Task: structure prediction
Amino acid sequence: NAGVMQNPRHLVRRRGQEARLRCSPMKGHSHVYWYRQLPEEGLKFMVYLQKENIIDESGMPKERFSAEFPKEGPSILRIQQVVRGDSAAYFCASSPVRGTSFIEQYFGPGTRLTVT
Amino acid sequence: KNQVEQSPQSLIILEGKNCTLQCNYTVSPFSNLRWYKQDTGRGPVSLTIMTFSENTKSNGRYTATLDADTKQSSLHITASQLSDSASYICVVSNTGTASKLTFGTGTRLQVTL
Result:
């Protein structure tokens, strides 16, 4: 049973370009979470999605960031017009059921985004 | 403001030695506390999860303690191995949904020969 998969593992973008990060949850998991880890900081929650639904996006920046989890295919975190401050590690996690505070989340290896 | 603070920031120990990592939190209301291990270049992996009523929980050579009154937790690693070299992250959950996880910045542990 493959774990949570993220690609690409490393992504370099120039300022102003778009970044697309993909996350394939564990088999049988229908809930996906995105986190951002800035250098020297702890992970910060961004968004929680179920297939075709955004459940909680309270941690998403208001502009340039969007996320989706379509019925088929991976979850996508999209960052438009990237800036240097977007450079970070972006982690995806998944769970089999609705994410209450007790539900175990399984993390992917992360995508390291570098904006030059 | 919900916060999780960990100490020390980094630690170097010899293989075979024990060590204890600390976590203080100000998350309220409290639901549960987790310790994660994060290898370099990897995502966090859960070690333990404790609720309000649990004082201690073990997972092999890892033993976590929780004092909900003082809002402190510790992670004790026994007979350390080179493979224990990683960041250890304390995560405290508010009651409610997954969005209420507050992550510490971690303790970076290096185990050497």
Observations:
- Chain A touches chain B through 28 residues (CB under 8 Å).
- DSSP finds no helices and eleven strands in chain A.
- Chain A has a mean pLDDT of 92.
